[in-house]
Amino acid sequence: MSALDTIFAVSSGAGRAGVCVFRLSGPDTRRIVEALTGRRKPKARYASLETFIGPDQQPIDKGLLIFFKGPASFTGEDSAEFHTHGSEAVIIAMSEAFLKAGARQAGPGEFTRRAFDHGKMDLTEAEGLADLIDAQTDGQRRQAFRQMDGGLRAVYDGWREGLIDALAAIEGEIDFPDEQDVPDALSHAAYEPLSRVILDMERALKDGIRGEKMRSGIHVAILGPPNAGKSTLLNRLAQREAAIVSDQAGTTRDVIEVQVNIAGIPVSVADTAGLRDASDDIEAEGVRRARGRAAEADLRIGVMSGDTLEESGHLTALLQSGDLLLLNKLDQTKFSGPDGPFKTFAVSAKDGTGFDKFYKALETIIISRFALTENPGLTRARHKDCTERAVSALTRGRGNLASAPELAGDDVRAALHAIKELAGEADIEAVLGAIFARFCIGK
Ligand SMILES: Nc1nc2c(ncn2[C@@H]2O[C@H](COP(=O)(O)OP(=O)(O)O)[C@@H](O)[C@H]2O)c(=O)[nH]1
Ligand SMILES: [Mg+2]
Questions:
Q1: What is the helix (H) or strand (E) element at residue 104, kind and residue range?
Q2: CATH number, domain containing residue 193
Q3: Which atom belonging to ligand 1 lies closest to the Cα atom of 332?
C-alpha cells in the first residue's frame, strides 16, 4: 500500500465509561502523539502517563499513552493508543485535537484492513476477528478465536502444499514425457497428492455446515395443534414469559421467536400458530407461516397433548427424521404417540415433569449435529464457495492426468487460485470491501 493518511477512532465501546481507548494509526502518528502530549520521541511499546493537550494548548485529560513503531503494531504502521476517561466531553475534545492535528476519523474496519494490507493477517483471520467481536455464545467465541488464530489458514496452507507437489509432478510429466507408454492416471505421481487434497477438502465442506451454523445460529420450530402447550414449552425453554399462554385455541397467531443458548450454540426457537383448519384469514396466515417455519428449521419439536389428539394429524406429516415429539400434559393424561422416525418424550410443559430428560436429548442432538469439531472449519458461504470450486477443478484435473497433463496442470492452477481467493490474496476488492465494511469503527 502506498502512503496512507493517518486515522483515529474510539476503539472502546460507546457511552459513559471509566476508560476510553483511542486508536491512531498511519505515517503521522509520531508527530500527532508529540503534538498531543508535548513529548518528543515517544518510546515504543511503553505505557507512560501523559497529559493530553488540545490545539489551544490547554489540557484535555490525563491518561496512558502507548506508542507502537511499525511494523511491530496491529496495523503494521506506526500507531498509538490513548487511554482517556470515557465521558462524552473528553471524547469530543480528544477527537477535535486529533482532527486539528491532521488525523482523519477512521471508517468501519479500517484498522483491520490496514493490518490485512500490510500482511499482518490473511482474510480468514480478519473474518475470525470480526466474528470474535460479534461472538455471543461460548461456542462462537471458540470458533472465532480459532479462526482468528490462523486455524483455517493452516488448513488451506496444507492444501496448497499438496497441490504444489502435484503440480510439480504434472509438470515433470510434461517436460520429460515417458519414452514408453503414457502411464495411466492411477500410476501418475500426482494422483496421490491430488486425491489426498480432494478428500480433505470434501471433509472440510461436510463439516462446513457446523461452522456456518455456529456463526449464524440454528433454527428450531415448535409445532403442534392449538392448545397442545407449544407456548408453554417455549416459555420454559426461554425461562421467561415470552409467549402468551391461554386455554383459548388460536392465541398464538404469528411466529414468536426467542434466542437461547444451548451447548454454546445460539439457537433461535420459534413458537408457531396451532396447526388446524383455521377459522379466519389471520389464523390461516399464521398456520401457513408455521408450515413455512417447519420446512426451514434445522430441527422441529412437535407437541401433542391428550386433549388435542384428534387435531394432531397435521403435525406428524411435518416432522422429519431425527426430530423430537413431546407428549405433553403428562400430569393430566398419559397416552402413546404415533410411530415415526422421531424421538418421543412424555412431559408436562406446565409443571416441568420430564422436561430435563427432553432437554438433555435436545442438547445432545444439537451438539452432535451442529457443535464444533476438532478441525477448524469453513465458517462462511465464501469459504465454501472457494473450496467447492477448488474441488471441482481438482476432480477434473485428476481425470485429465493420463490423457492431457497440460489440462490437469491448468486445473490444479485454477484450484490454487481458488485458495488464493479464500486467503484474500487474489484481487477481489469487492469481496474485501464488503467484509471490512461490516466491522465496527475503531477496529
Ligand atoms: N395440565 C397441563 N396443562 C398444560 C400443560 N401445558 C400447557 N397447558 C395448558 O394448556 C393450555 C394451552 O397452552 P398453550 O401453551 O397456550 O398452548 P399452545 O396453543 O399450543 O401454544 C393452557 O391453558 C396451558 O396452561 C401441561 O403440561 N399440563
Ligand atoms: Mg400458543
A1: strand 104-105
A2: 1.20.120.430
A3: 1
